[in-house]
What we know:
This protein is an alpha/beta fold. The protein has helices at residues 16-30, 49-55, 82-88, 98-102, 108-120, 133-137, 141-152, 183-201, 203-206, 222-226, 243-257, and strands spanning 4-9, 38-43, 62-63, 92-95, 124-129, 164-168, 211-213, 233-236.
Amino acid sequence: MKRVYFGTNLKMYKNIRMTHDYLVSLEQLTRDISRDTIKLFVIPSYTSLPEAVKCVDQSLIQIGAQNMGWEDEGQFTGEISPLMLEELGIHLMMAGHSERRHVFLETDEMENRKVLCALHHGFTALLCIGETGEQKEGGISREILRTQLKLGFKGVDPQMADHIMVAYEPVWAIGVNGKPASVEYAEEMHSEIRTCLDEIFGRENSAKIPVLYGGSVNMENAVPLIRQEHIDGLYVGRSAWHADQFNTLIRACLSSLSGQ
């Protein structure tokens, strides 16, 4: 069975105490699952990061940052540098989440600078990509995803592929009012993403990059999604924000893949 990736972004929903309780519970519930079988990561709010790295074993649950500045230091009020994250013991950062792109108007160039900076410091860079509903209706989903990948990974050394993850999150499928993509559509876009990664990094290096699906993942669609050839993992939203539910979802996916 392939190694399966499961992650969640807690956004701005859990305070320090809630994050602590969630992580401790999730670690206990999933401790018996071999990490050769899964890679599990959680990305809490910035204020929760110091407590998060203290309360869990990162060999079991890797802790990541929701954003990162692209300079080590300087006049960047409100930003957090890679050196600050390293000081906390954080080595995973997310760039390009749809809210950063569409609410805070970050560009592909900005995401690229973050990715390059993260890789320079030995971080794992999780690049989020996805098309809007209007772009989907206009029939340009593939072009949008290719553009975000090619600009987001511009200048990246192909040998750094094993420090990269990609999350495909169609903008129209995430959030409170999101509508999940069909399994067929998700697989079609993941196949396109894999082809583009092959072009950017070469097939051998590209094979090291897991591509996760995120967008209203729930107990009903998680198993059909994870069984698809080109979907390497799930980036789960609300269905992961209660540790017991996330544990149930993970185990259902693993059971299905193992043929049980």
